[in-house]
Amino acid sequence: MKIIACRAEDLGLLDAHLPSASAESHHAARFARQEAGESTYLLAWRDGLPVGHGEVRWHGCAAPEVRAAVARRIAPEAVTSGGPSVSGPTPASGCPEINGLAVAEHLRSQGIGTALIHAAEDLARARRLPAIGLGVDETNPRAAALYARLGYEALVPYVDRWSYVDRGGLRVECADACTFLVKRL
């Protein structure tokens, strides 16, 4: 297995092997954010096929309650001590978000998610960031257990709100009860 940043030529395989429920590709949107310098879209590959993904959003989680909690917990001076060692945007909080972490269902519990998380943590460390975080849906105890084993601690509950247009053209509004978890690096 290898973990690499998404390339334009990967989008077709991603849509074929890890399709999204929306009419528009989530993969294309994540790749566009990467191209704009807002994130790094990591892909896990096995036997020439994409088997998992996760996006490191350098500006952190957008939820106001998460941003406020991170600002209280991550000292601003930790962000400025030494500055980032790699060019690119750095969140004011010093805590980027791992977003959209997913592994093909038939390949879960084989270390792919862990490898993606470690790769994201390595990218944050390379930028000298003091922490990294992610949200976990309260209905996903397996993921919560994995994140706890990897050293992530609960910071704040929040509602993750997002929407998409389904393949039938209908807008679907989603609101997931989550907890934002943080790991010091």
TrEMBL record:
Keywords: Acyltransferase, Transferase. Residues 1-177 form the N-acetyltransferase domain. It comes from the Bacteria. The keyword Ligase does not apply. GO terms for molecular function: acyltransferase activity, transferring groups other than amino-acyl groups. SUPFAM superfamilies: Acyl-CoA N-acyltransferases (Nat). Coiled coil: none annotated. This is Acetyltransferase (GNAT) family protein. It comes from Streptomyces indicus.
